[in-house]
Amino acid sequence: MIPTMTEQAIQIPPGGLAGDLAIPERATGIVLFAHGSGSSRHSSRNRYVAGVLQQTGLATLLLDLLTTAEEAVDISTAHFRFDIDMLAGRVVEATDWLARDPRTGSLRLGYFGASTGGAAALVAAAERPEVVRAVVSRGGRPDLAGSALPHVAAPTLLIVGGRDEVVIELNQLALDELHCEKHLQIVPGATHLFEERGALEQVSLLARDWFTQHLKSSRR
Q1: What is the pLDDT of residue 203?
Q2: 3 state DSSP class of 189
Q3: Where are the domains of the chain?
Q4: What angle is formed at CA 101 by the lines to CA 97 and CA 103, rounded to 5 degrees?
Q5: Measured at the alpha carbon of residue 91, what is the angle toward residues 103 and 200, in degrees to the nearest 5?
Q6: More confident residue, 17 or 119
Q7: Which of 6, 23, 81, 104 is the most core-located residue (most Cβ within 10 A)?
């Protein structure tokens, strides 16, 4: 049975970043989606994953890490999508906002990062170790989290396509730097965007199981 859902467009101060917040009835946790590499909260791939998580009782926040003006610049320069410190700072702002909001403040929090958003999620997790309980990276660049990696306390799952060979190597390097509970999962036959038949479904189920395991209590 699909849980009853409350959905709302929100803005995160101070910059007014746009997001879509969905909270199932009797939510058992919440997952903040950190997009990267020119993506946004409208990403069909992340919305698919979010839908799977919502069906299991997890709330989701799909957030734009760039303002409209920054997105316009980034389309031509690709500058902002690689500013990991800035992106991580905005993930932290959203994290603190969720902690203050009475609808979500009692829910355990996880991050789902894609591409450079994976690095931003890990840097933010290192900055809020007492709050972030799980991280999943899909086709991410966790290596770009650099010196933050050894400070990540949240159990971390790195998911990479089996045909995304360069990114596999970069994820392995990042995995070696993590000192928390960690796992690298290769999806056979998948490329960077997991566009192959059944690939995104595998990602969704892996994320669902990871978050269900680590966000199983509705209280912090």
Answers
A1: 97
A2: coil
A3: 32-49+70-214
A4: 135
A5: 90
A6: 119
A7: 81
